[in-house]
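quick one before i forget lol
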Amino acid sequence: LVRFFFARGTDFNKVTQKQLDAVVSLINNRPRKCLGFLSPNDLLKLIVVEETILYLDALLTSICPPFEDL
């Protein structure tokens, strides 16, 4: 994907960090069909939130088990 933004033969020693950061941001925030039209950044955020919820649920369950029916 980088070649979409920089032509073949580009001297990357002359490309600034700011230019690279802009390209990386465009790539990571572009929606993708294969990701259900989410961007890679959006998908990562969803995964992190889901994993955090699962972790906290397991942690809370180990500290304070759910009530059992009597």
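fyi Helices lie at 2-5, 17-28, 40-63.
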